[in-house]
Amino acid sequence: MGEEGVKLYGNILSPFVLRVEWALQLKGIKYEYVNEDLSNKSPQLLQYNPVHKMVPVLVHNGRPIAESAVIVEYIDEAWSDFYPLLPSNPYQKATTRFWAKFVEEKCLHGSFDVLSRVGEEQLQAVKEMQESLKTLEGHLEENKFFGGETIGFVDIIAGWMPSWLGMIEEIIGIKIINEEDLPLISAWIKDFLDHNLVKETMPPQEKVMAHMRAIRENVLSAMSA
Amino acid sequence: MAAVGGEEVKLLGAWPSPFVMRPRIALNLKGVGYEFLEEVFGVKSELLLKSNPVYKKIPVLIHAGKPICESMIIVQYIDEVWAAKGSAILPADPYDRALHRFWAVYIDDKWFPSLSGISRAQTEEAKAEAVEQVFAGLKLLEEAFEKCSKGKGFFGGDTIGYLDIALGCYLGWLKVTEKMTGIKFLDEEKTPLLVGWGERFCADDAVKGVMPETNKLMEFFKVLQAKFKAASAK
């Protein structure tokens, strides 16, 4: 399968778009990045993702794929001869998919709860987040990355956590990840942020933080309205 | 029950669960025998807690002693391990696979929650909104069917595939909701392709024996509702 006509519709504020960029770059795939103004979505985006109208959308030879995890698996299967993102063994593959889903369901939703709550409820959300991370840490074992020596599927799906959780900690003024309680996750965060690909693709922190502060304010003002 | 290389296949589950039905259909499509270990409602067995410590939920497939959790992940596992047997569950082409996966995520994350939202709705307004969302979703799925089936009988083409399993497992609960609300969700005038598909799916050999009867499911649902009401009244 050729690399002709690979387009990624995205936005710098989206951690989901980053997942796709990492997958494409790890595979050495050349692509055109189309920046979307999410307050004024292009007709192409609405045509390519009519169901959700969201980024990321990958368009390969004119055919669109949406949903970041689905896109990453597509990239792994369509460009299968270089840098496998998922293991080939069915049991290991199933385990990989399981933990990716866990990250999505527990950690992603959990982080939104942490960002959007106050007082006791927020502390409870932080505690639950820490428990989820502890559970996830078990899967890391003694490996550098979830994918082993190199970044794999779970690293890509969980890759928003190192910088986004750090930003959330700063916004809410509460530490979520303590090195003594989560030593392996802390080590993974350091190694992940130190990876060249991650360094090169890191979005501007001030812009993302401003965006997340706005999300928090919107949720809080809606609650007190 | 022995399968590839003589390894045992067990499935932890319960008859009313649409999620449990998914791997059962997949195993049937592959002609793989398995031992069905039925969980008692309201009591989680030692084996379940040991095999799925993270979620403590069914279904769990145990193959050669190793557990696999999450229904659609189990379905993919079955498709990959027994690739040489029966019919393929996921299509061969990566783009078609992506379409099946995309719609399966939509069904689980958006469509089914609106369906189950109908019975959980506290106000008439909330109920009407959930009903509208279910209809809107079915319209999208009708279009998806046209695209994926390419004129054949299932989302997977000639045989039941990943997306058929993802949506079809909810047909029993859809029928229960139709009976309880008096609303015909699968309507020949609105979504004719899905109506035909639904009948073919339920009649298929891989599905027939594992799709619960609507009346039985209805009775189970009433017991569930009564239990929740009693629990919330305390």
Automatic annotation (TrEMBL), chain A:
Example GO BP: glutathione metabolic process
InterPro entries membership: Glutathione-S-Trfase_C-like, Glutathione-S-Trfase_C_sf, Glutathione_S-Trfase, Glutathione_S-Trfase_N, GST_C, GST_C_Tau, Omega/Tau-like, Thioredoxin-like_sf
Source organism superkingdom: Eukaryota
A Pfam family that the UniProt record links to this protein: GST_N
Catalytic activity entry: RX + glutathione = an S-substituted glutathione + a halide anion + H(+)
SUPFAM superfamilies found in the cross-reference section: GST C-terminal domain-like, Thioredoxin-like
Keyword Transferase on entry: yes
Keywords: Transferase
Any GO CC annotation of this UniProt entry: cytoplasm
Domain GST N-terminal: 4-83
Protein name as catalogued: glutathione transferase
Native species: Cocos nucifera
TrEMBL record, chain B:
CDD domains linked to this entry: GST_C_Tau, GST_N_Tau
UniProt catalytic activity: RX + glutathione = an S-substituted glutathione + a halide anion + H(+)
Keywords assigned: Transferase
The organism's place on the tree of life at top rank: Eukaryota
This protein's GO CC annotations: cytoplasm
Coiled coil: none
One Gene Ontology MF term: glutathione transferase activity
Residue stretches making up the GST N-terminal domain: 7-86
Occurrences of domain GST C-terminal (ranges): 93-224
One Pfam family in the UniProt entry: GST_C
Biological process per Gene Ontology, one example term: toxin catabolic process
Entry EC no(s): 2.5.1.18
Family of the protein in this entry: Belongs to the GST superfamily. Tau family.
Protein name listed in UniProt: glutathione transferase
